[in-house]
């Protein structure tokens, strides 16, 4: 009857509606499961090269620093405990540089492997857009950014201060001051030493130059043909006994110049005042905590050299961690576009990319400290350029359109 036909039709409609909802829920569940599987899969692909790259890069830099400071162990006669403390204080500095590079290498190698094994193509054939690989990239890059940010702003300043204090305490207690040949030594605030050659025992110096800017009224420069290092019996005072030289003193207003010739001149340094951290011990920009750095930056005159140095340090601590995000998002489409077939080519590409970024930052430091432009512009400009390149590469890769400069 018509009534039975209408009732059966309503039943069929309700069944079809239920089946449609069930099918939609199953597809949505399948899609969510596929996304979680893809997230875990790519994270595992990234994690292994990340930790391997981090270990290798840190080890290489650590060995370089170890060779540099091994001489310190023998000259001062310090124990292995003091030497181990110095190397421990170096670790935050090393990680601040190796974590961004390890992030770049990890994502670059992971996506290079996926592209080389045609897994990116299989993902696209299954209806998975390249944009759906953003979450694993964002997780690793965000983790690296957070760790590097904490290291740069909170851990590294304390480590730098502890490192300098340990060196100076070793100098005070062991009766040695570590002066390096043909390097500007600025362990003491307001003093810069340059020595052409130093005897193996560290006591006989040749071709000595000292810049003394501790006084606000006069600036002094001392030049001597040779000198000897003499320590007080208690090891709390060091004397540089200089021979055959000159002292040049310039007034702060640059109105007068005084020249003094000498045959013997004793330049005294109180090691306690520098090693034990009293009021004469002044912190460099890298030793200041983030809050203290902001306060000092706000109190300095805009445009001065000191303000430029502080501004550079402030923005460096923010821009360098952000490089983890920029380089991480750039590495994923770059590896797919460049089609690096082997891990070696991926490593070479990653090193070249990081060196290019570092060249930008080094140029920004040189020009920014000179006052050519605000340091913030130079430090953030590489991030802006690389971010724009990353956006273009993501769009090109998602559309399966080759990027001609890379091709």
What features would you describe in this structure?
The chain starts with a helix and ends in a 9-residue tail after the last helix. The chain is an alpha+beta fold and 407 residues long. Residues 275-282 have low confidence and may be disordered. It has helices at residues 2-76, 80-116, 119-125, 134-174, 271-275, 290-299, 305-338, 343-369, 375-398, and strands at residues 191-198, 204-212, 218-231, 237-251, 257-270. The protein has a 5-stranded antiparallel sheet.
Helicity, in percent?
55-70%
Oligomer: single chain
Q: What is the structural class? A: alpha+beta
Quantity of strands, as a count: 5
The unreliable regions are 275-282
What separation lies between the terminal Cα atoms? 71 Å
Count the DSSP helices.
9
Largest sheet: 5 strands, antiparallel
Shape: elongated
Order of helices and strands: HHHHEEEEEHHHHH
Range of strand content: 5-15%
